[in-house]
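Practice problem 4.
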């Protein structure tokens, strides 16, 4: 199978992932009132939650940088390309599954901007899941 995924699509995915990393603090603070909720936890648990939040933000940013800088390498069919696209695909597919399975039971604030933002972010997560799963499948097909 010849590379069918254009670089611009991978780079667009990378830009979107960086966007999610940049917007993440705003969403936590303005949409979810995250910091006030965290204050109800014990100090160690507060730090654990904040650390995991930074991990998520860091992964999103790092995956975006990798996609932008190494778009050709992500689709070259090497074992490393398979491993990395597999990791990124699993991350975003897991995020989409979590969004669908758990998040609908919670209410976001009903401001129009937050409703639109919620749909936009969900579409973005689905886009990431599709692009990186497509990359993974393409890489696996090239290798075998």
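Answer key:
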């Amino acid at each position: 199978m010849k590379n069918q995924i254009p670089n611009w699509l991978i780079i667009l995915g990378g830009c979107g992932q960086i966007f999610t990393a940049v917007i993440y603090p705003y969403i936590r603070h303005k949409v979810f009132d995250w910091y006030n909720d965290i204050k109800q936890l014990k100090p160690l648990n507060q730090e654990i939650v904040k650390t995991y939040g930074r991990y998520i933000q860091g992964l999103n940013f790092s995956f975006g940088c990798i996609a932008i800088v190494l778009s050709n390498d992500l689709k070259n069919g090497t074992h490393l390309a398979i491993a990395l696209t597999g990791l990124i695909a699993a991350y975003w597919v897991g995020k989409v599954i979590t969004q669908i399975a758990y998040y609908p039971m919670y209410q976001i604030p009903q401001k129009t901007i937050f409703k639109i933002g919620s749909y936009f972010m969900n579409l973005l997560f689905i886009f990431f899941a599709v692009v990186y799963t497509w990359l993974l499948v393409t890489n696996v097909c090239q290798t075998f």
